[in-house]
Amino acid sequence: MSDVFYRPPEENAVDAIEEIRAELDMFDDWMERYQYIIEMGRKLPAFPQEWQDDSHRVPGCQSQVWLEAKEEEGALFFAGASDAAIVQGLVALLLRVYSGRTSADILQTEPVFLHDLGLVKALSTNRGNGVEAMAQAIRQRAARNAA
């Protein structure tokens, strides 16, 4: 099942955030950016049906969102999915930043980039709160791992 865990192309979270910023800046408006984010979500590895349950569900999201993590060679790798296309894209964006990083790196990477990229402001209030809840769930998993 290791192929369900996302492996980002960038070496670290800072590079991932900068790449995402550059990619989003290529588009003139948020409708085009949303489409790009949705495409990111479509490229995520398939999330196993048996993990789409309450024990994997992220609380605080309007849509259903599921996350799973595993530790490998000192890094945490995440798998994720949602039942909504735009939210699946937001999952992909977060996994690109946080998956494959050490717990310390995850905890040092505050989710302020969601605001810096203009994402939280561009989303509905519920979706903005949801993406922040997803980031917090990832960071809580890293904190448990680091303890």
From TrEMBL:
Protein name as catalogued? SufE family protein
Q: Which organism is it from?
A: Neokomagataea anthophila
InterPro entries, per database record: Fe-S_metab-assoc_dom (IPR003808)
A Pfam match is SufE
Q: Which family does it belong to?
A: Belongs to the SufE family.
Domain named Fe-S metabolism associated: residues? 23-140
